[in-house]
Amino acid sequence: MEIVNTGKEKNAVLLAVKGRIDALSAPEFEKELVEWIEKGETNFIIDLGDLDYISSAGLRSILATAKKLKANEGQILLSSLKDAVKEVFEISGFSSIIPIYESVETALAQMQ
Amino acid sequence: MQVHFWGTRGSIPASLDADSIRHKVKAALEIAAQKGFSSKSDIDAFIDNELPFWAKGTYGTNTSCVEIRDGDDFILCDAGSGLRDFGNYAVRTYGKKSPTEFHILISHLHWDHIQGFPFFIPAFMEGTRITVYGCHKDMYQAFSVQQSTPFFPIEYKNLGAEIRFIELVPDETYDINGFKVTAKEQNHPGKSYGYRIEKGAKVVVYSTDSEHKSESEEDSGHFVDFFRRADLLIFDAQYSLADASTVKADWGHSNNFIGVELAQQAGVKHLCLFHNEPASSDENLDKFLLDTQRLASLLTEDTALQISIARDGMIIEV
Q1: Does A98 contact chain B (CB < 8 Å)?
Q2: Cβ-nearest to B215 among A23, A63, A84
Q3: Is there a contact between B298 and A60 if contact means CB atoms under 8 Å apart?
Q4: What are B99-133's pLDDT values in tens digits?
Q5: Domains observed in chain B
Q6: pTM of the predicted model, to two decimals?
Q7: CATH number of the domain encompassing residue A90
Q8: How many Cβ pairs within 8 Å bridge chains A and B?
Q9: B4 pairs with which residues across the strands?
Q10: What are the φ and ψ backbone dihedral angles of B153, each rounded to 5 degrees?
């Protein structure tokens, strides 16, 4: 898994995650997001266009981050999912918990 | 071995009401309206081949009870309301005058896993011997209290059968009626125990009422060993991952997602989703199975894992 910061727009940190979020990499994902949160950031748009695989641990790590942000009146939006990854979100029921957008631009348009 | 599911619902017997039946009949007629039938065999073929399972059948209403049989030898897993149907079958098969032996493994003492015992006809018959195995210390108390005033009209002490309770030690292997049985502690309120049941080269794992938080090594790695190369894994998949991670977290049950992950890691041949959510309709359970099969194909290109969902009356040859 690789996490890249691609900028900040409309008060939202833009991140792109590549590769896999599984039981091995999920703690690293969560840790990096917590570091951003501890710096005072509360809004994130995560581009998953290059994410190939996400396990249940990966989904839970996104949910754990979303819960932390909600407590700080922040939010996490996902964008650009590949079809297979999007289907995993739908089957798991996570697509009804975490907002998903077609692109970073449409996610930005929804950012409060 | 043969695995016969007598009860497959989680938590409480799930009623099938008139509205649900009407929904099935309407769906069947809507599909049938596009057909023409010239014979009764046409109708049978239509029902068998063209109606979805939910519209022509039901996953059933009984709580947990699974019979594992090898020839004349058998053991039962749990004594939910499915035990009543098994008992009636046993009386029909063995006859009222034939004393016989029953061996019952108990995962834990929550009511949905013991509530069938007061309706287990062989327990009322003198000459029957029943041995109940489990890792909880208070098995006798739970069985006797649920069958006492004011909960039940016939007191436990008046049962005709000879009933013994044997406490097992987790991770030890026992010979029970010809089967090698190993219990494992699971994450559930008040603890529950799964059973790895082996005979010859065949392995069935009965693992219900067990909450897995993550497929990570530290959380569930030891379960991968417990499930290793099972021919059949009967797995608590009461919830979706979303429900198990939010509103139903820490309720002591798992989900279909982690069931697939652990089964794939363990090289299981056949994963059977079990402890079906009582609030799920037959139509929802049909979809739950299809979604789980699709999920398995998305998580790995190895399509060797067979996936089914338990229903009352289902028999799986192992």
Answers
A1: no
A2: A23
A3: no
A4: 689 999 999 999 999 999 999 999 999 999 999 99
A5: 2-13+57-317 (3.60.15.10)
A6: 0.94
A7: 3.30.750.24
A8: 56
A9: B67, B315
A10: -75, -25
